[in-house]
Every structure is written in structure tokens, then in C-alpha cells.
Amino acid sequence: MTTVSDIENMIARVGIGDRNAFSALYDATSAKLFGVCLRILNNRADAEEALQEVFVRIWQKASSYSANGYSPMTWLITLARNLAIDKLRARKAPTTDIDDVPDLRDQGPTPEAAAIASSERAQIDTCLNELDDGHADAVRGAYLNGDSYQELADRFDVPINTMRTWLRRSLLKLKECLSR
Amino acid sequence: MSGSTDIDKDDFALAGEYALHLLDAKERAAFEQRLLNEPALRAALREWDEDFATMANEFEPVSPPDHLKAKIELDMFAANTPSHGVSAHFWSLRRFIASAVAVAALVMIGFYSYNLNRFSPTQVADMITADESLFIHAGYQDGDDELHFIRHKGTTGEGRSLELWLIPAGETVAVSLGVIPEQERGVMPLAAEHAAAIKGGTLAISDEPFGGSPTGQATGPVLVVTPITDL
């Protein structure tokens, strides 16, 4: 199984222009990153386009990876998620292709899943649960679906400024809990 | 988890909003500008990214389609490939060969027309570009040493050539099958190792200088990538 340090090595080698490492990194991480793009964009064609841009970006930015202090899967997932949300925002009318739901699920644990201790996962869940009603869903919706303030405000039926005040307050509470 | 303690709460919340991608384009750009000069802000953002990433196991892994990897590598490395100082001599040789191939193809078209009734493809690929400006059908009959094509739609730009590439199954490196002749229909000769790799492979077309890529790798934009299907 590919380990976190394998991924780290691959990124480092991609950083010096190693195409074999790029190929190996793609094989090890594309399913996870495609999953991120699909979840955010909810459309296969858009997600394929996004994944292509993600790997171009990885090729370009890998040389600066070692200096930034990120764990490798966080770096890759953050990059993919940000790019997918950029595309989502750029898309004029949001499409909801229910038929586009993922159909090719990978089996087995991913390096990322193995890397993230369940205790950390439990900690963010615990801390999210300490937030006021619904605010945890807002944070989750923003992270997992790429919801915008407007979408969150519509869902909670509050003005966008109120939504923002709530969310910022929730973030500070969340941070306080996580650093306990 | 240190380094972010010396920024105020507002900035901390702002970094969280940035990490969630909730800021509008203008705020986002302003924050990115600050990131360049403020290590404490970068540290705060990294903490948020790492914290939020613990939710990332809810992103279900999904295998992307097989041909996507080849397309990505073809696009990227074609664009990034320096020309390796390919000499003008080599270039003109390629051009000569391409012309010779074109003439040969013309001759073979007659042959193909003659043999039309005997061709029954076992593998095909309908290569249609995203904007539908180009539609080329390719057909291959098992055991043949040539690939049949029908250009349903689209012409080649002035002074340009469309080059056909084969990405064999399980491979990521594309091999050139040559320039697609300008005719509406015809055949392209296949080397034995390429013929053997048609089944399960993927075809791609790139837009190249006249006579085809001078480097042996796609240099122009890849217009379409289509997996070959069995009939």
C-alpha cells in the first residue's frame, strides 16, 4: 500500500520534473482527487476537466511543496478542492446531475484515510457538535459541497451578512475547541 | 500548531473563511496578497486546511476514466517538451516523409475503395472534438496492417496537419501513427507493433505544424482523445 511518505517522495520527485513519479502520483491519488472534484462539481465532464487542471497545477507547484509544511494529502486535497470550487463559482447556472453520481468506487483504504487518525476525525466531529444548531452543517456544507455564503444564507433563510457573522463566530468556537 | 497565535481573531476567522472558499473573488485576491508577506497568516491557513482535511474522508474516491491519464500527460508533456534542438534537416526529412506518406495514401485510397466490401472493422473509434468541429471515424480490422478513417466533418488549418496518436492499453506514452491525410476517407498504414496495440488502446489527434510533430511527441493542442471500442 502507498504510504504517506511514499506520496511525499513522489511529490518531491515531481518537483524536479520526474515524469515517472508524476505517473505514480497520479495512480496513487487520482481516485481520491477525482472524488473531491465530483463531489464539488456534481458533474462528470466538469470533474474530468477539473482533475486535468489539478494535475497540471501539481506538476507546476510540486517544487514548492516541501517548503510549505503541509501533509501531502492535505496539500493535494486542498489544491483539488479549491480548483473545483473555482470552477463551480465560474459556472453560471449550477447543474445538478443526479445521474452523474459516482459509479466506480474504489475498494480499500486510501493513503489519506490511513493517514488521518480516527481520533482527529472524532475531534472535529466533537467540536462541530458543540456549535449551535445547524452551524456545523453550514461548515460541513461549505467544506464538502463548496456551498457559498449565498447558498448557505438561502438554506438557513437569513440575510447573507447574518450568515457570515454566524459562520465566523462558529469558526472561532471551532478553533477554540480544536486547540483544547 | 504554533505560529498562528500572534494573529488576531478577525484574521483567524478570515483564514478559516478563505480555507472554506467562502470569500468572494475580491476578498480572496486580497487575502492571497497578504499571504505572501505574512507568515503568521500562512500558518493560520495551514492549520485550518489541516483541520478541515480531517473531514476529507467523506470525499469518496472514484476512479477517473482510463483515458484521462493519457490525455493529461499528452497535453502537459507535449506542451512542456522542449524541441530538443531538432534540426531543420530532420524537420524537412519529416516533411518529405509526410508528403510521401500522403502520396502513398492517395494511391491506397483507390485500393481501399476497391476493397471496400471486404473491410469489416473489429475495432472503431469515433473521434469528435468537444466543439464538434471535427469528426473523424477510425476503423480497424483485426489482423490488418492499416487503419481506415472517414473524415465526417472538419478540415485542417492552413499550413497545419492533424496527427494521429495511439496510446496502447496500459501505457501512458502516445506513439504517432502519422498525419491524417486530407481526404474524406482513406487508410493509414500501421506498423505491426501498432496494429497489435489497437485493441484496448486509445486514439488521439493533435494539431501540428504541416507534416506532423517535429519532435515525435505532440507539440500542438490535443483536440480529441477517444478510447477504441470493440465491435
TrEMBL record, chain A:
Residue ranges constituting the RNA polymerase sigma factor 70 region 4 type domain according to the UniProt record: 122-174
NCBIfam families associated with the record: PRK12514.1, sigma70-ECF
Highest taxon of source: Bacteria
Domain RNA polymerase sigma-70 region: 25-92
This protein's UniProt keywords: Sigma factor, Transcription, Transcription regulation
GO molecular function, one term: DNA binding
Claim: Transcription is one of the keywords in the record: yes
SUPFAM superfamilies xref list: Sigma2 domain of RNA polymerase sigma factors, Sigma3 and sigma4 domains of RNA polymerase sigma factors
Pfam families: Sigma70_r2, Sigma70_r4_2
Record's keyword annotation contains RNA-binding: no
Family: Belongs to the sigma-70 factor family. ECF subfamily.
Protein name: RNA polymerase subunit sigma
GO biological process, one term: DNA-templated transcription initiation
Automatic annotation (TrEMBL), chain B:
Transmembrane segments: 96-114
Subcellular location: Cell membrane; Membrane
Record flagged with keyword Cell membrane: yes
Cellular component aspect of the GO annotation: plasma membrane
Name of this chain's protein: Regulator of SigK
UniProt source species: Paramylibacter kogurei
GO function term, MF aspect, one: sigma factor antagonist activity
Pfam families named among the record's database cross-references: RskA_C
UniProt lineage: Bacteria, Pseudomonadati, Pseudomonadota, Alphaproteobacteria, Rhodobacterales
